[in-house]
Design brief:
Radius of gyration: 16 Å
Largest sheet: none
Distance between the termini: 34 Å
Number of helices: 3
Number of strands: 0
Structural class: mainly alpha
Length: about 120
């Protein structure tokens, strides 16, 4: 079940706002767990859950990696067949460097995932 923005803007906006609230609550849980459990708390299932909650009832494909090409202006994202591997590499990098990085969010964004 999902609502299209063009069908009912008011309902779509309300669902989107409620999704954002649920995603925020889930993210706070994830952060609390991450602070207790460390790097094993960060995995693709956490990312899938956050994405699923963010787009529930407005997209049918939330909570999984894309399996089709996408286009974002001039940006050329990796081919969809490479997405799962790139995400596994990203997650491994975060997990392997969890205790090394002094600023965990200062990840150097130079992989093909982030480059245009």
């Amino acid at each position: 079940m999902f609502v299209l923005e063009q069908e009912d803007q008011e309902l779509y906006d309300r669902i989107q706002e409620q999704n954002l609230n649920r995603q925020y609550e889930l993210l706070t849980n994830c952060i609390e767990i991450g602070l207790k459990k460390g790097p094993i708390a960060f995995d693709k299932y956490m990312l899938w859950a956050l994405n699923h909650v963010a787009v529930a009832n407005i997209s049918q494909f939330g909570g999984r990696f894309r399996e089709e090409p996408i286009y974002v202006g001039d940006h050329k994202p990796p081919h969809f067949k490479e997405v799962a591997d790139w995400m596994d590499r990203f997650i491994s990098t975060v997990q392997e460097n969890w205790f090394i990085w002094t600023r965990p969010l200062a990840i150097k964004l130079d992989s093909p995932i982030y480059r245009g």
